[in-house]
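Researcher: I'd like a structural prediction for the single chain below. Treat it as a standalone chain; there are no partners to consider.
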Amino acid sequence: MNRKRLFLVLGFFAVVVILAGISLIIQARAARSEAFLTNISEGNCTVVMVGKDASVDGSTLATHTADCGFCDWTWRHVPAADHKPGEMRKIYHVSQYKTWPPSEGLKWDLYKKDFTGLEIPEVPHTYAYHHGMFGYMNECQLAIGESSINCQRKIANPTPAPAFDITMLTLLAMERCKTAREAIKLMGSLAEQYGYGFNDDGEMLAVADTKEVWEFEIMPVGPLWTPKSGKPGAVWCAQRIPDDQVAVCPNESRIGEIDLNSPDYFMASSNVISCAVENGLYDPKSGQPFSFKKAYSPAEGSATSTEGRRARLWRFFNIVAPSLKLSPDTADMDLPFSAKPEKKLSVQDVMNITRDKCQGTQFDPVKGIRGGPFLNPYYFGSTRTIGTNRAEYTTITQCRGWLPDPIGGIVWICFGAQDTSCYMPFYAGMTEFPKSFSIGDHWVFNRDSARWAFDYVDFHAQVAYNAAIEDVKAAQAKWEAEVVARIPEIDKQAQDLYQKSPAKAAKFLTGFCLNNAQNVINAWWKLGDDLLVRYNHISFYDTEKRTRERTKPVYPEWWRKAVKAYDVLMAPEEKK
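Model: Treating it as a single chain, here is the predicted structure.
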C-alpha cells in the first residue's frame, strides 16, 4: 500500500471515528435531555415579583408571561356590579388552555357551557377588573400574575369533583377582594371548601396590592377527594416577598420551609403538613424540617445540569444580584426564595428582564453557531430563557399606593414575543378595552385582531434577526419608552380630573389608553410592512437612499467557515 493511499485510509477511518463519537454524544445528550424534560412542567410562564422598597418609585410590580403557544390571548373589562340579597354566583370550569374556532364564538362566552353545578352566594358589590387568561387587576389595585408548577402525581385530581380551577379562583378574587391577603384567604378557603383541580394541577400566583407582594401556591389533594369527604379539597401555602427584595417563579415551586408563627410572612391551609404526611410525601420522624416545595413539587436539576432548561431561576438572580455569585451549578431547589437587588428596579427595568435571553452567559442561545448567521436566539432553542416567542402576551402589574386606586394601578401588556413587541399601559380605572383585544386566534390571520400586528412584526424579524431587531428597538424607544416617561404627566392630569369628578378621570384614562394602544397597533402593522420590504429575499433593500440600492446580506466569515467545515465532515457520509 503506498503512502498516499495509507493516508487516505487513515483519514477516512479518522472521520468515521469522529462522526461516530459525535453521534454517540448527540444520542447521549438527547436521552439526558428527554429525562430532564419528563420532570419539567409543560407550562413556561415566568413571574417576576418586586417589593415596594425594591422598586424605584415605591410601587409593587409583578409580571406574567402567558407562555402557551396555542392559548386564547383575548382581554376583557368586567364592570363593577351591585347584587340583590339571594343572588347567586355560578361557578364554571375554565380551562386556561382551551380555545374554540372563531366561527363557533369567543372563549369568554363559550366557557359558560362548562357549568360545574355549583352556585355560591353573591356579595353585595363586585369590583370592576381587567382579565385575560386570568384576572389581572381590579379597581382596588389588587393584582395577580400566574405560573404553573408541577405537583406530585398522586395528589393530582383531574376528576370533575373539584369545582375550582386557577382561572375561576382569580376571577372571584378580582370581584371580591381589595388586598393581597384578602385574595389569598378567599381563594384558599374556596378551594378548601369546594375543591381545586380538574383543569389544573400545581399552580402559583403572584398576588399583589399597593403594599405587599405574595407568592401563593396551591395543589389538589388527590383523585379520591369529593365534597362529601369532610376534608379540605386543596392544600396551599403563601409566602410574602420582603418589601426590599425581589423574587421569581419560573414554573417551579419556590416556597420551602414555612413558619406559620410568622403571619406577616406566611399563610397556609390547615392541612399543609398533614396532607403531605398522609400521602407519604413527608415523614415528621425524619428529623428534617417540613418544606412545601420538597414535599409537594420537587424540581430536580440546576441550570447547568438541565443544559439551560432550568436556567431562568439562576439567570434572574444573576441579573438583579450578581454579587451573590450564585453558581449555575447550584440546584434550583437550593437557590434563595428572594434577594435584595443591587439597584432598585423601574418598570422599564422589569420590561427588559422579561426580554432577557441569557445574553453573555454559557446559556446564550446565539453562542457559537447556534444563532446562525443572523444571531437568531430562536434557532437552536435549547435554553429556556425568560423572554420567549411562545408568549400569548406578557403583563406587568404596577400598584402605586400614593395615587387613587383607579389611577395608581396599571397593567402593562405586550402581545407575542417580548423582544419584538411593545408594552402598552392600561389603567385600573379605565372602563373598556380596545375591541381588537377581544378577538383573534392562532389559526386564523386577522388584521382586526391586535395580537396579529405583533406576530406580523415578529415573523418578518426572523429573516435577518440581528438587523431587524434594531428596527424594532427603535420603534420600542418611540412607542414604549416615551410612554413610560409620560406616565407621571398622565397621572397628574387624571388626578386633577379625579378631584373634580372620578367619572371624568375614568373617561380620560380610557381615552388615553385606547388611543395609545391604537397608535401602537398601527405602528406595528407599518413596521411589519417595512421589515418585509427591507429584508425581502434575504437582502437589504435600502429604503432611505434615492439610489434605491439592494445589497445581499454580508454573512460573517465564521459562518462561512462553519459551513465549509461541516461539508468536509459530512463528505464521507455522503459518499456512502
